[in-house]
Amino acid sequence: MTNIRTRFAPSPTGRMHVGNLRTALYAYLIAKHEGGTFILRIEDTDQERFVPEALGIIYRSLEEAGIGHDEGPDKDGGYGPYVQSERQAQGIYMKYAKQLIDQGDAYYCFCDEERLSKLKKVINGKEVHFYDKHCLHLSKEEVEANLAAGKPYVIRMNMPTEGTTTFHDVIYGDITVNNDELEDLILIKSDGFPTYNFANVVDDHLMKITHVVRGNEYLSSAPKYNRIYEAFGWDIPVYVHCPLITDENHNKLSKRSGHSSFEDLLEQGFLPEAVVNFVALCGWSPEEDREIYSLDELVKVFDYRRISKSPAVFDYTKLRWMNGEYIKKMDFDAFYEKAKPFLESTIHRSMDLKKVAGMVQSRIEIFPDIPELIDFLEEVPDYEIELYRNKKSKTTPETSVEVLKELLPVFEQQEDYSNDALFAALKQYVSEKGCKNGYAMWPLRIAVSGKQSTPGGASEIMELLGKEESLKRIRAAIRKLEEALA
RNA sequence: GGUUCCUUGGUCAAGCGGUUAAGACGUCGCCCUCUCACGGCGAAAACAGGAGUUCGAGUCUCCUAGGAACUACCA
């Protein structure tokens, strides 16, 4: 079996779209599953859209995702350079384009914008372009004269107008189009840079890419690329087109959704492993019935033939769930380190933050969930006394004052403010009074937290708060209730 | 408009001619429980429609409908 070589070929124009992340992941998994080579190539042929920071984003994102490349701009594997602008500077693309011209498969085109715009049509509010092969019919002399005069030009592929072209995709099968649908696409732009179409084909061949993994948006143009391969007489790689990832409206996931890029997600408090896991399952499913996979496990089980054809909606809610699963499985110390900033920004009084972290670990899905869960530890929020009314515990504001007043001296005398000791004291009170746990626990919890639900119960909260603050809160609650009931 | 692709519950999806049509998220209910969460158990919820082929179709073919992508000197 030949060595599998796949590549991820982003263009440095901004943040890493989750669709791109998934493409990178699949390309990586396909290679690694077979012990192959994964290559990073930078497609910076569009100077206008190029943003320098994007390079850093690409490296950082791949690293955070754990998707390491074997070859790339920073790791020469003998197929460099791995940046297209550098390859362009070496004249690689022009050399191949000229070969095509010599063969009669491509031609110079001197049409200016004015002429081109006359070929545009607007159908249903959309601009539709087509090129009429005008410059194909230029005589050799005319071409020479134009070139000598320094007239700007592009190089176009001369597509056949009769017959059909078929290409094969592992996911979608055979796709056949009529050749008259094929446009004479531009190979080299007037600034001397290659287009994506051309650079991609040339580089994939030169870098011996065996499996081309890319988004489904290229599916309809794929037959055109086949013509280029054929004109050169090159082997056509295995195509793996991945289905689109869409938003809830089934449109291409865009920046407007607020979570379209890997960086967005990390900023929102998601763990990179969780995002990778989630994105792997967006458009692919394992043979076994299971959801949680580490990257290494994915490498083992990934079978690209199980990639699905239909587009997948990006389910933010499920991502949150999955992130929660990863958080619950985190080693406590690691969790604490990640949670610390959120803990410290909401709690300023002295308290055992590790205990707080422990209470919160099974209750959050992303780290930014922490503050609103524990804000009451810093300060009791303003609350309605109706909170004291609880059907199941059979409590009302009236029963609550009574209980709190009876409990106050108990806790004033209590010296050991550990959870266990406090809970024992409460149990004793409950059994002496002959009531249900909740009858006492509920009002006490409300008194010290001011919230309907809290991470941890009354005694756990009091342990964190300590004696002084706990008593202060109980007294304040009694006052609040008495005033309201008076 | 043209071309291409897609179509199983709200969402991700399994299924590859014979199943009570999995599972997960979400939703709801119950249990556990000092509230909530975790955990456990359970429920509601789907083969877009129509013709064929076949003893038998979610699975194969065709048509219709819906959706999406592409249709750039962007990738």
- Total number of β-strand segments? 13
Q: Low-confidence segments, ≥5 residues, pLDDT <50?
A: none
Provide a count of the helices: 19
Percent of residues in beta strands? 5-15%
Query: What is the alpha-carbon Rg in Å?
Result: 33 Å
Major β-sheet annotation: 3 strands, antiparallel
State the helical fraction.
40-55%
Please state the overall shape, judged from the principal axes of the Cα atoms: elongated
Strand order of the largest sheet: 3-6-9
Q: Which whole number gives the mean pLDDT? A: 95
**SS-based class:** mainly alpha
Distance between the termini: 86 Å
Structure commentary:
The chain is mainly alpha-helical. Helices cover 47% and strands 10% of the residues. It has a three-stranded antiparallel beta sheet. It is elongated and about 110 Å long. 34% of the residues are buried. The model has no long low-confidence stretch (mean pLDDT 95). The protein binds one RNA strand of 75 nucleotides through strand 5, strand 8, helix 7, strand 13 and helix 12.
